[in-house]
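Please check this record.
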Amino acid sequence: MSSSHNNLSNHPASFGLIVVAALLCALAPVSDAQPHASPDVLTIRRDAWLRILRAEDKRLVDSALLELLGDRDAQTRRRAALALGRIGESSAIAPLASLLANDEHMSVRGAAAFAIGEIEALEGVAALRTALHRAEEAEHVRARATEALGKIAAALAPEKQVDQLRVIQSEITKVLSDEAARSHQARRELALAAITAALRARMSGAALTISEFLASDDARARRCGQHAGAIARARGHLKARSCARR
């Protein structure tokens, strides 16, 4: 075994970045497969994604990563937002909130909402509530905002942060009740996100509403309704498992 291989083995994070870089180079579309993407553009995208990977590896929110939230490429913006969520620093809430409010791409706004939930900081609640109340907002984004509120609620100390918990629970309750009232016309992604959020937020009082989904045409919604029945029968709270991802 060569000494260079031994050096790489001693630094798995660096080795991982090299592997990813190699894959990016190997999988980059050739000019006839993507005629509008010049070699220069593809190089810029690879460089941007490597910057994201380095920031995640170091768990560092720096200007290089934050700048990518304004990148011309939507996938790069989305990936940068998710990286900020994984890093988990509350200093990223403000730029993520701006992305959630202003980005033109639904997938990017959804990623921003998801990332705010991953950070689990109360500072993100206002931006998530605004997204929920935006009448023209896409179902996908509202679902991710609802799910994120559930994550933040789960991270709170109920005995010390009662008021904040009630605000979040009331938002989740409204989404849950609205979707239950729609019966078979319930918006699937949003309904499943609301059920998951209610479970995470320790909303045992929502069990009856969730159980209404037992009659749903969606198998995953029915399973979540069954979990709600278990909550109602148990003295404790069932630890939430993400219904939205089954």
